[in-house]
Amino acid sequence: MTAPLKLVAVSAGLSQPSSTRLLADRLAGAVRTALEGRREVEAEVVELRGLARGIADHLVTGFPGPELRAALESVERADAVIAVTPIFSASYSGLFKSFFDVLDPDALTGTPVLVAATGGTARHSLALEHAVRPLFAHLRAVVVPTAVFAASEDWGSGGDAEGLAPRIARAAGELADLLAARPPRPRTESAVVPFEQQLAALRAG
Fold first, then answer.
1. φ, ψ (nearest 5 deg) of residue 10
2. Of 12, 49, 151, 152, whose CB count within 10 A is highest?
């Protein structure tokens, strides 16, 4: 029996409720729907809002706390990632970038990634192509062709029917096709790094 695929959605939304989290949930649901009858999927959402302090601490100390370590390991072990950020000042949020800055730089190599973003108006949508997609190309991920941007007007019933829903379905279908024939990623327990090695890495930084 084939093991379920692990899908992790990373949401960098700052508010509660969050349109960024809502978009992450809809994309994860659409991927599961697109894979029905083909592959079983276990989906998980990693919300960065509650990890903000831990991410900042990790940036200056080099050590993740327990909650951040668990989130990083979830992403590192994922068969596919959905990455959703709000757009601030024509780019991804600092919280979003900082999380991927502390992620192992090789963790997403070859991993399918669907990128998405939220913003006040559709004028910010190009940030997906000039900022978010290059970030994951740098991390050597396999980024699906369709990126999903949701502006404020997309959450109304008219906007959803005319634009957002079809974009979500198309992007989810592309990610599902990449995953359909993909074997699950080998599950390995995290290695225990000796304290002396951690200290040496801290001094080097």
1. -100, 120
2. 12
Residue 108: Cβ within 10 Å count: 23
Q: Measure CA 99 to chain center.
A: 10
Contacts 24+ apart (CB under 8 A), 70-74: 71/46, 71/99, 72/102, 72/103, 72/104, 72/107, 73/190, 74/6, 74/8, 74/44, 74/46
Distance of CA 16 to the CA centre of its chain: 18
CA distances from 45 to 67, 89, 98 (A): 14, 25, 17
Q: Which of 139, 78, 134 is nearest to 105 (CA)?
A: 139
How many other CB atoms are found less than 10 A from the CB of residue 137?
12
Residues in the chain, overall count: 205
H or E segment to which residue 10 belongs: strand 5-11
In tens, the pLDDT along 114-162 reads 999 999 988 889 999 999 999 999 999 999 999 999 998 888 766 565 6
First-to-last alpha carbon distance for the chain, in angstroms, is 45
Of 136, 170, 184, the C-alpha closest to 27 is 170
Pick the closest to residue 180 from 83, 30, 40 (CA basis). 40
Helix (H, G, I), strand (E, B) or coil at 176: helix
- Region 41-57: what's the mean pLDDT? 97
DSSP state string for 73-107: HHHHT-SEEEEEEEEETTEE-HHHHHHHHHS-TTT
